[in-house]
């Protein structure tokens, strides 16, 4: 009874009913509670809101004016407070900012964007592709894709699938150099390395048993995974690349998978949002679409 808004809502119900008892039934209150609310408002305004007798109530002229002024505000509040899941024909709109690695742009993100815009044309998507680890909070990222497990407790992350790393080369290059039998043989072959934008140094190649191989003198260093892949297809060197990029090319014979027995354990591909607690419908739509698109990326064990 201490809420001014609640008092006005009870007053509205009483004004729309034939008695305080009927209003109480509609609201789930007692008739005494309705009476006390009306009395509190009458005390506040210094005006009588209802003429009442033992059989019925009749709103006063001042009460009619108060109802006219308060009803639109109460209806707006009801709409504002109603949970989106209970609203009819909710229109999902606004802007959602997405962060993803460059290699995901034309493979997973665009597929998700196509599906989202088809279903929710009023939703605007702001896509930022970068291989540098973004500060999601400072940059206003709503949903992102990240490789590897996320340990930040501020984030909500859901694994979409496993990602495996394959060492690959073109058939033409292997015909010239021969296939390496052991990881130690890699140092004598032309290699292509990916640069870690966060450090400026080439990424090491990850191998089974926690071992790593450092491509010390690569023939090509690239800061973009698609450039790296283009170099492999041109026969410029071997590279270690994500399965979702090379699996279709291995299956059709454009690339050869090397040292399969020395591949590291799978890494996780995660969809994340940097916010705990309730999530807006627009963010949920994008989160789920990205999760589905990443889960559908190709791998050697699927088509």
From TrEMBL:
What Pfam families does the database record attribute to this sequence? HTH_1 (PF00126), LysR_substrate (PF03466)
Q: Which UniProt keywords apply?
A: DNA-binding, Transcription, Transcription regulation
**Entry keyword annotation includes Oxidoreductase:** no
Q: Where is the HTH lysR-type domain?
A: 1-60
Known InterPro entries for this protein?
Answer: LysR-type_TF_proteobact-type (IPR058163), LysR_HTH_N (IPR000847), LysR_subst-bd (IPR005119), WH-like_DNA-bd_sf (IPR036388), WH_DNA-bd_sf (IPR036390)
Q: Name one GO molecular function term.
A: DNA binding
Query: Domain of life here?
Result: Bacteria
Family note: Belongs to the LysR transcriptional regulatory family.
Name assigned to this protein? Transcriptional regulator
Reply yes or no: does the keyword Lipoprotein apply: no
